[in-house]
Amino acid sequence: MTSRLIALLILTVSILTACGRANATPPAAAGYLIFLEGGFSNAGETVKVLDSGTGSVVRELPLGTPSSDWSRYYVVTQLTGSAQLKAIEPASGRTIAQITVPAGYSLPNIAFQGPTAGISPNGKWLALSQNSSNFLVGPSSLSEPFKTIHLKGGEFVFDALSNDGNSLYLIQKMLDANHYRVRLYDVAAGALMPQPVADKREPNEPMNGIRGDSAADPAGNYVYTVYIRAGGPFIHALPLGQPFAWCIDLPSRAPSDIEKQFQWALAISRDGGSLYAANPALGTVSVLTTGDAPKVVRSGLLALAHDNTLLGGLVTNAEAKGPRIGGAALSSDGRTLFTFGGTGVVAIDTATLKVRARYLDPWQPDTMRLSTDGKWLYVAESSENKVWQIDPATGAVAELKAATNPWALLWAEPK
User: Fold this and answer.
1) Is the N end or the C end of the chain the one with fewer CB atoms within 10 Å?
2) Which range has the worst mean pLDDT, 242-246, 250-254, 289-293, 409-413?
3) 7 pLDDT exceeds 60?
4) φ, ψ of residue 138 in degrees (nearest 5)
């Protein structure tokens, strides 16, 4: 094949792709506030609050930690010789409460540990950290002083906090960057428990892997986190308030391909009884039972990605993307799991684990979030500055206006 013909074929594919992307969509329905983080997190980034009808930014918040229902949002501002911890009502921007804490303490990073890092699932307790060895734990009402925790003998990172505020779970980093231990600090007793938190079925199994997506059950009794490792991915199921955990292996396809493994995304049912793990890069969906001794009960191999190549693979799909916040969502009735395909969004029937519908081909969205009332699925693609509104019941797609670099959709609620 001549170079001129190859160039012509590439141009043809580009034109076809552009035409597909040019399809017009109606404007999004009004009446909702959408919270999104723009761009990759760093000191200059903010969380933008969008009006769904106009797409305009009605408010900007510094990076912080929301309660699970987003009724409160916590931020820390460093001052000279101290710091200010503030609770904000995110929908209005109104300050609810504030206290002074020692200088250097901050909230866990929202971009790397998920949108509720640093707070208990019930939203009643909050943790701050300083220099990977010092922590503060106190009531999220900010009505009482926080307890100070000083740790020795290692580098620690926040993992989870129990609903009673007494069990602080920490990741203790090891010399090997891929190995770690989960440690439990008893806040009431003021002591680090001597034994690491481990799967009691395999207490001597060394913990290794890189943290991925995480989800808590609605009651706040468990936190489920995907870990990526060379031997294959697994879910670390942590029962809050207990000194042990469960490790559940996920289907191991291409375990050495870390980029693909990072695309595991979690969604949990509203009753907390089922956990769904989806990986569009591997075309795999697994269903787990939750609670004591959680396990994989079903798995399916899906044709999640279209083959967007012409003439024997002359033009290929874009490379797989890295870890996301908001890579899967479950409909309110629990019948449909939404996740990403090679392009667009796929709707999966949870009863059969078969693809029911596809949306937004040939776009390559990055993040999604279901509105709190279950009426709308919001989907965004950061590189193209796009945010869409999908009706889960009908599949109708609308587009928001004026979105800018929407890296992570965090929350969506009626006004």
Assistant:
1) N
2) 250-254
3) no
4) -165, 175
Question: How many angstroms separate the CA atoms of 350 and 330, rounded?
Answer: 9
Taking the complete model, does pTM exceed 0.90, yes or no?
A: no
**Closest of 216, 206, 204 to residue 169, by C-alpha:** 216
More confident residue, 415 or 304: 415
Tokens of 206: 């060394």
Per-residue pLDDT tens for 184-196?
999 999 999 999 9
- Could you tell me which of 147, 102, 103 has the C-alpha nearest to residue 127? 147
Question: CB neighbours of 194 closer than 8 A, spacing ≥ 6?
Answer: none
What is the longest distance spanned by two Cα atoms in the chain? Answer: 75
Q: Which residue from 375, 398, 395 is spatially nearest to 386, judged by alpha carbons?
A: 398
The full set of domains in the chain, from first to last, is 65-106+116-196 (2.130.10.10)
Whether the CB-CB separation of 89 and 103 falls below 8 Å is answered with no
Calpha distance 374→371 (Å, rounded): 5
Separation between Cα atoms, residue 22 and residue 165, nearest integer Å: 51
For residue 131, the one-letter residue type is N
